[in-house]
Amino acid sequence: MLLVSLPHTQHSIAVYSLLNAVEVASNMARYDGVEFGHRSGEHASTEAMFADSRRAAFNEVVRGRVLAGNYFLLRRHYEDYVMQAMRIRRLIAADFERIWRSGCDLLLAPVTLSDGHRYSEFTQRDSRTNTAALDYCTQPANMAGIPAVTVPVRLSSRGLPVSLQLMAPMFGEQQLLQTAHWLERTVRFPRLYVID
């Protein structure tokens, strides 16, 4: 086993959050109530119908991401935000490429920074906090565009799951899934049920 350095992965949550908002804004633009999506009642103008349809169909999280994404996509912000995030995403991918070229076949890493959360703990926090905390370890693989899989390996002292993730180079899915299957058979993780 080798220890490796992925120095740019610490920025993956920020990069993901920005690029996700840009993607949401871009993808949700088509849901105008004319060809796609919910259409609200009749209005004095097409613009008013668009606004009312989106207000009724999109929840607060989606509306927030659309607003943030459109802000980042403005010509005066595009270079500072979107282009910078894409540069950092390339650096994250380059970190992984360097690891694969060094002879590493798979990476083993944690899935979360702590054991699992009880359902009642999870539902008490807002979605953004949950996402940032839970995705911290898994976003680098997404930003690098590499395959990854998580496997639960044991229970913590609180009786909650602890998982590991395996990551592989692009097109390394066969070895990734074979190793995950071997790990799953080896640790014999018990079946879990939701605890309130």
UniProtKB/TrEMBL annotation:
Gene3D superfamilies for this protein: Amidase signature (AS) domain
Alphabetized InterPro entries for the sequence: Amidase (IPR000120), Amidase_dom (IPR023631), AS_sf (IPR036928)
Pfam families, alphabetized: Amidase
Gene label: gatA
BP GO annotations: glutaminyl-tRNAGln biosynthesis via transamidation; mitochondrial translation
Name of protein: Glutamyl-tRNA(Gln) amidotransferase subunit A, mitochondrial
Keywords: Transferase
MF terms in GO: glutaminyl-tRNA synthase (glutamine-hydrolyzing) activity; transferase activity
GO CC annotations, alphabetized: glutamyl-tRNA(Gln) amidotransferase complex; mitochondrion
Domain Amidase: start-end pairs: 4-177
